[in-house]
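Board notes (copied after class):
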Amino acid sequence: GALVIVSIYTMADAQPMFAWYEDYATAESARKDSIREVVQRIEAQQRTIDRLLQACHSTPTAAMADTFTTVRGMFEQLKAEYQALATTFPSDEYYRYHGMWRNPTQHLVFSASLLVYLEAERLISLEEFQAMIGAQPKGQGFHIDLEDYLYGVCSLPSELARLATNCVTMGDFARPSKINAFVGDVYNGFRLLNLKNDGLRKKFDSLKYDVKKIEGVIYDLSIRGLLPRAE
């Protein structure tokens, strides 16, 4: 009989704990649903931006001004989405949920870096990207993780290697050399970093193949006598 009494007492005592956990799990699930809803809208915008910028492989950059304006406008729209994202979780729990928006954000860094390169032949900075989506410096609000920025930028050389090949198809024989110089600078910049993240280090290691691919395009132009002489 005593055993039964203890058993009943123990279950009764445990009920508040299980009730608390159920409330916690329900709130956590609702929070993740809220984050997921915003992230899905961000992903949809990112895919459209990527599709628009792919025109660079078949359209001379001089003819893409309207596309650049459209893409800039879409980044403006993304500011509201990232502001909404920032309201879905406590600011001190950023890295608890960071994995939910990491991939689309890395893709957006890549898209923004491609846009800025096509517009001005330079590398986008972390601060510039944060301004494009309305993020804040770290410690001052919703920020962009440095490794997310580096991942995105690390994807650019591969796209530019493809662009170098397609420039030849479009009859632009001068641009591959400019791309080669730019990608070389990016590659050397990454070499200066002490990369602790294994995934990021592997991504960096693949850059040397992009460099070789672009050098191959230039060599091919050279032996065919199509490489413009430096003025």
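Comment from the instructor: The two ends are 101 Å apart (CA to CA). Residues 2-53 form the longest helix (52 residues).
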